[in-house]
């Protein structure tokens, strides 16, 4: 059966046996669409448009209930629709848009992880062998047991990592590195000149593993229940990273073959999946990762076609749910050397770290994907057109990423919307919509009783179910903050640092209005942005970062909140907006 998929000007084609679901066929064609529930038929996000004459299975009761009137407009759910003959399917090209640009980053005075020195081969009169003479000129004590040898004509370059000779090559090329922040929802990258410290290009995208679920547990489950699940998720991640590197090089007019180091910072599960490590143990008490230390692999071992001696280094994890991304955040903010400061990473895992008495107390809160647009009816990542802020002054004003037409609601937009509802008395203390008659007139006119939701623009709306998802997320994070501060910390908090690609667009006042932050906090609050990516860059550019990372791991203490009665009891209390 011939399937033809149209997405804007792009066309994908393939032959599939009858009964193959559209979602499975998309996977075989390399097409990734949003499936927060992992294709379980629960979220209703994998919508596609089909021609009236398309040969597809008839919609079942569940699909009819989810789609309602949309069925008449030719909308189907890819996870529930089987191919019965030749057909054409149409996707919204917006599904493939990249997320918003990452923070502006600059570094100075670097001493990179991979040093390059240009030397001339001695013509004669050397005391020992030529190699030893060359190495003496580096003034480093180097292990010479294993290194790459390239062309040795004319002037050559010696490449070293701490304590090790890695290459001697006569190629007149750049010395490049890539910083990679791989998160549950997004992947952010930066290409750097390791000699100068210049950031040459930046690029990010949605994590295509979202097709297998929006949270880490969904993806771990996929590796367990599917025979080739781990292999599939590893392949998807590696292809996404490879594509991002291609874009970085094209944008900066550099060659992938000149990339000599990649530093990865990511949550524990995402890092494991990238390297092909088993992840099942992360989901089972005591939630131990397969491996927690620094990972080093040759780039080719994980499918990256870079320089012949390129290495991929992943930052270590503190625990199964406090990963290398948080270690990178601690590194980039200098948290270990600070006292009485709190780092909050707003994302799916909701990690929290506090510096106290020379130690770092860490926890994660399983906030879920709502803060990043997941499990929200019209939720999206930080894509062009995502509503990131709303305001009301006689009329509703929407601010979207890229100032384009609204396409959905991202995490910061969700917080802003809930804050607006609370400020205008539109939500009761327990989270239900209040009496419509008490709403401001213009806002009251936007309520759709059929959807039990508030219309923001066109087909973009927010429902009571979405508000419940927000309550779950904010209760988890708020409870984690309070338990950590009240039960394990006796100092006086001086500063709170809000981190995450999501965190860079947040209105701090909204964090208090919605109850994400406790009202009794009285200290400076700063928005740090993507500290994970900054930490990966710092590791690339400063050799001293490796010693600092060891120190961070050595003084970190992980607290498992799920085992505490006080967390479970307080979590219920923090669901409301009192």
Dominant shape: globular
Residue-averaged pLDDT, rounded?
87
**Fraction in helix:** 25-40%
The CATH class of the largest domain is identified as: Alpha Beta
Quaternary structure classification? single chain
Structural class comes to alpha/beta
Poorly predicted ranges: 93-102
Number of strands: 27
Describe the main β-sheet briefly.
Answer: 6 strands, mixed
How many separate domains?
Answer: 5
CATH topology of the largest domain: Nucleotidyltransferase, domain 5
Quick overview:
By secondary structure, the protein is α/β, with parallel strands linked by helices. It is 26% helix and 24% strand.
Written overview of the protein:
The structure is a single chain. With 578 residues, the protein is an alpha/beta fold. It has five domains: 2-95, Beta-grasp domain (Ubiquitin-like (UB roll)); 115-169, no CATH class; 176-314, Nucleotidyltransferase, domain 5 (2-Layer Sandwich), CATH 3.30.420.480; 333-369 and 470-573, Nucleotidyltransferase, domain 5 (2-Layer Sandwich), CATH 3.30.420; 371-458, no CATH class. 26% of the residues lie in helices and 24% in strands. It is built from 14 helices and 27 strands. It has a six-stranded mixed β-sheet with strand order 12-11-10-13-15-14, sandwiched between helices. Helix 7 crosses helix 12 and helix 7 crosses helix 13 (544-554). The radius of gyration is 26 Å and the shape is globular. The termini are far apart. The relative contact order is 0.11. Mean pLDDT is 87; it is low at 93-102.
């Amino acid at each position: 059966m011939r399937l033809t998929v149209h997405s804007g000007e792009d066309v994908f084609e393939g032959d599939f046996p009858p009964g193959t679901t559209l979602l499975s066929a998309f996977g075989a064609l390399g097409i990734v669409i949003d499936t927060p529930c992992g294709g379980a038929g629960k979220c209703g996000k994998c919508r596609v448009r089909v021609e009236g004459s398309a040969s597809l299975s008839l919609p079942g009761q569940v699909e009819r209930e989810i789609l309602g009137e949309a069925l008449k407009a030719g909308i189907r759910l890819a996870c529930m629709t089987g191919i019965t003959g030749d057909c054409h399917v149409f996707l919204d090209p917006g599904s493939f848009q990249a997320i918003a640009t990452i923070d502006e980053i600059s570094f100075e005075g670097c001493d990179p992880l991979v040093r390059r020195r240009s030397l001339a081969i001695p013509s004669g009169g050397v005391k020992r062998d030529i190699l030893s003479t060359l190495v003496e000129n580096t003034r480093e004590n180097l292990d010479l047991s294993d290194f790459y040898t390239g062309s040795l004509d004319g002037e050559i370059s010696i490449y070293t990592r701490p304590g090790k000779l890695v290459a001697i090559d006569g190629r007149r090329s750049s010395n490049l590195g890539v910083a990679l922040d791989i998160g549950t929802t997004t992947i952010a990258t930066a290409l750097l000149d390791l000699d100068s410290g210049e950031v040459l290009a930046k690029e990010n995208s949605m994590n295509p593993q979202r097709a297998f679920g929006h949270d880490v547990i969904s993806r771990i489950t996929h590796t367990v229940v599917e025979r080739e699940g781990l292999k599939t998720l590893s392949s998807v991640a590696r292809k996404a990273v490879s594509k991002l590197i291609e874009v970085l090089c094209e944008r900066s007019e550099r060659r992938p073959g000149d990339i000599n180091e990649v530093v990865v910072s990511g949550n524990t599960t995402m890092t494991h999946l990238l390297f092909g490590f088993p992840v099942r143990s992360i989901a089972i008490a005591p939630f131990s990762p397969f491996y927690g230390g620094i990972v080093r692999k040759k780039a080719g071992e994980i499918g990256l076609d870079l320089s012949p001696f390129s290495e991929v280094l992943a930052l270590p994890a503190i625990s199964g749910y406090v990963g290398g991304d948080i270690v990178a955040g601690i590194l980039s903010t200098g948290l270990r050397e600070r006292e009485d400061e709190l780092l909050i990473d707003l994302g799916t895992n909701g990690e929290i770290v506090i510096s106290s008495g020379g130690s770092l107390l860490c926890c994660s809160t399983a906030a879920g994907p709502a803060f990043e647009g997941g499990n929200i009816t019209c939720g999206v990542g930080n894509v062009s057109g995502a509503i990131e802020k709303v305001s009301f002054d006689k009329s509703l004003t929407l601010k979207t990423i890229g100032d384009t037409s609204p396409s959905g609601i991202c995490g910061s937009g969700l917080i802003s919307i809930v804050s607006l509802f609370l400020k205008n008395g539109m939500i009761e203390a327990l989270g239900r919509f209040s009496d419509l008659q008490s709403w401001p007139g213009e806002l009251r006119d936007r309520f759709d009783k059929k959807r039990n939701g508030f219309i923001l623009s066109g087909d973009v709306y927010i429902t009571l179910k979405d508000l419940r998802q927000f309550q779950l997320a904010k209760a988890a994070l708020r409870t984690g903050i309070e338990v950590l501060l009240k039960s394990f910390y006796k100092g006086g908090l001086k500063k709170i640092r809000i981190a995450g690609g999501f965190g860079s667009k947040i209105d701090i006042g909204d964090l208090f209005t919605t109850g994400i932050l406790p009202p009794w906090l009285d200290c400076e609050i700063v928005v740090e942005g993507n500290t994970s990516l900054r930490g990966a860059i710092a590791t690339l550019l400063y050799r001293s970062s490796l010693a600092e990372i060891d120190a961070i791991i050595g003084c970190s203490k992980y607290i498992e909140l799920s085992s505490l009665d006080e967390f479970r009891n307080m979590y219920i209390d923090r669901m409301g907006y009192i």
